[in-house]
Structures are given as structure tokens and as C-alpha cells.
Design a protein that fits this description.
The complex is a heterodimer. Chain A is an alpha+beta fold. Chain A is built from 3 helices and 5 strands, in the order E-E-H-E-H-H-E-E. Chain B has 2 domains: about 230 residues, FAD/NAD(P)-binding domain (3-Layer(bba) Sandwich); about 120 residues, FAD/NAD(P)-binding domain. In chain B, a hairpin with a 2-residue loop joins strand 12 and strand 13. Classes of the chains: A alpha+beta, B alpha/beta. Chains A and B meet through helix 3 of A and loops of B.
Amino acid sequence: MAKITFIQPDGTRQIVNATVGQTVMEAAKLSDVPGIEAECGGACACATCHVYVADGWREKTGSPSEMEEDMLDFAFDVREESRLSCQIKVTDELDGLIVQVPAKQF
Amino acid sequence: MDMAQNGAQNGAENGSDNASAGAPVETDVVIIGAGPVGLFAVFELGLLDIRCHLIDILDKIGGQCAELYPEKPIYDIPGLPVVTGQELTDRLIEQIKPFDPMFHLNERVDELTKTADGRFLLKTDVGRAFLCKVVVIGAGGGSFTPKRPPLEGIEAYEATSVFYSVRRMDDFRGKDILIVGGGDSALDWTLSLQPIANSLTLLHRRDDFRAAPHSVEKMRELVASGQMRLMIGQMTGLDGSDGNLAGVTVKTKEGEERLPINRVLPFFGLTMKLGPIANWGLNLEENLIPVDTEKFETSEKGIFAIGDINTYPGKLKLILSGFHEGALMAQQAHRYIYPDKKLLFQYTTSSSNLQKKLGVK
């Protein structure tokens, strides 16, 4: 089990319980986190589950694969800390993870 | 996987016949959407001697299976422990071959009205018309449309200064053009429009491109010889008046810069929107079409909705549910198309009549 905090653009925080092996996107959808659309259902094919990983967590989440980088081209306001949440697998190490939801998913 | 926007670019030339802007195509059933559920509906209708035309906005058959996840394995198709989106599409195309369906790709159905004789008249965005007795909406998540960058006020410039596809190159002649993106659409149009532009800038978020390497190489040569500009960054704002764009603000590592630009082509892939279906007078519930679970018919007699686009108590958005819905829909469609014929329920395993239709020897 890992606790993940989603921060909305207006600063609202929502803490979600995620199971190891889930993706961060799945954990968000199960708890109805606003702003995580995941139109393609987690196939890394739409870029509508875009999040910003908070400082201090990027080493643990790792960096995007080539396929994910390609798909991030379809996201808006992409930053260095951008990830697609369907491509981050929840591990025990990610307990306490903080991610920010972008203002818009397109 | 590149959600390139060929579907939006190619216009009409990919339909499997050449009729356009003439007399309406007359057929039993028009299926809107050529995804897996629309394809299997051809099979179920075909067994009942009902002929179909399919219309899809994409430039290929297969819907989301072909556009979003052609390489991804699907594990819940009965009898196929694992099959990719493209394989499933290919097998369905094979399965419905005996019924010779007609495909009209790169076309979007814009209008659906009822005629005086009780049939339906459909008009597409390329000016083609269809007359049919039954309409089956199998439009999945809606029609694939280009993504609109969420910049304030962008709508005001669309179709005058901001375009998501190039329909006429002349609209870009002598203009100061900004192309945004890093895939084949962005690079191809960069190379095609650069010779006729007054100035051309390509903007991408990173100095790495998904597009074909030879296009990227050609683009870099044009940049090196000063014939165009490449910027690494993102759009942050637009300015202008009365739909005429005057400038685009771009954020790069060096800071913000305003470029004098009067044409923008953003290429950010496709998203699904309900689209014109919303205007056809059908009851809708949160962008889905409510149907009964006996015939999968909408609020309008003779118009059915199957697959992800419909909703009913207990609905599951699964391909297999869509197959079932198509089979039951076909029974009712038969009553409308052959009101005087008795429908005899038969199995493909034992019916020589059905086997003849399938070409079994």
C-alpha cells in the first residue's frame, strides 16, 4: 500500500491509497481524482493522464520511456517533471508520492 | 505510435467508391463507425440478408483498436486468449468479407434527418449523401478530432488563422506560419509549406522528433541555411483581433518571445468528441445514447446505438458487449427492412442457408 497525494491546480490536496502493482493513473481513477482523464484506458496512447511529479520524487518514479516521451508531445504545458501517470507503477518506495494535476489535459 | 492527423487531412479520396455530391447512396443500413462493434454488426446483419455501408472519420478501419492500440494485446475476446487491436480488426474484416460491406473512410456524418417515406437521409462532411432504412450508431467514444491547445481565446482564430489540417495550401501562401508539433504531420507540412511561406517557424517541446528521420534531416538543413526557424518551447498565448492572428507568444528556455505570426498549425494528435451526433435530436445522457436492452434502439425508431456510445442499466464498455448488442439489433433491423418476411432463428454450424451466405463449401 502506498499513499499518493494529488494536488489540483487550485491547491486542493487529495490523498489516495494505492496498491502496489497498480499504476498511479488507476489509483487516481479509482478515487475519482479530478483532472485525470485517461481517455485511452492506460495504453500510453492519449496523454490525458499527465501529471507533474513533485520535487524529490523524480528519482523514485524514474524518467519517461521513449514511447512515453513521444506521447508527452501530445500533452500541454509539458515540463521536466512531466509524466503520464499510467506509466508510473506503484511500488512501496512510492509511499508518500506527491504529484500535481495540470490545469488542463487538452 | 503516432496519433498523426491524416484522418483530418486527406479529405475524401479514400472512400471505397467515387460517388460524391451526386445522388444519395441507397442501402439497407448505414453504420456510423467502423470499429470492432460496427464491423461485427455487418456480420449479424449480413446473415439476415441486410446490406451495409460503413462511414468512419478515421483514414483506416478498426476505430480505437486501430488508432489507439493496434499493438496492444486484448485478453477478453472470447476464444482469442490474446489478440492485438490490429489483429482483431483484420480478423473481423476477414469474417465480414462474404457480405461485401462498403467503407467510406475520412468521412464524418454531419446530418441525419428522416425523409417523408420513413427512411433516413445522412449527409457527410465531404458532401456525400446516403438513404437507408436503418441507422446503426457504433461511434465508440465519438469522432476523433484534432486536439485544441488550451490557449485562451484560440476558438476565435480557428478556421481563419489557426488550422488543424491543411485543406488548401493557398491559404498559407505568403503567410508567417507557425507549425507546432514533432510528428509526421508537423514535419511534412513544414517541408511542404516552407517554400510558399513568407516565414516559417517550427515549434516543438524538445529537440527530438517522432517524425521520419529523413524529414527531420531535411528540416534541419532548411534551418541551417536560414530558410526557416526551429524553436524548442511551447505556445503560451495568442494575440490579434477579429479572428485575425497577429502574434504568438512562445516560451523557451531563454524566456518568453512574441513572434509575428498569422497562421498556426497545431499538431497535438486526436481526441474523441461526440461531435454532430449531439444535433440529431436523440436523447442523450452525458454524451451517451440511452437504448433499450432488447433491441438497442435509441429514442428514434429505426436508429440503433451499439458499443461504447450507448448506455443502459448495467452497461459495460467491452467489445464483447458490443458484439452481443449488434446481434440483437440485427433482429429488429430485419423487421424494419423486411416487414413481411418471417425471421427464422438459425445457427451457422448447421444452417445450410447461412453457410451458403458465408461461402462455406
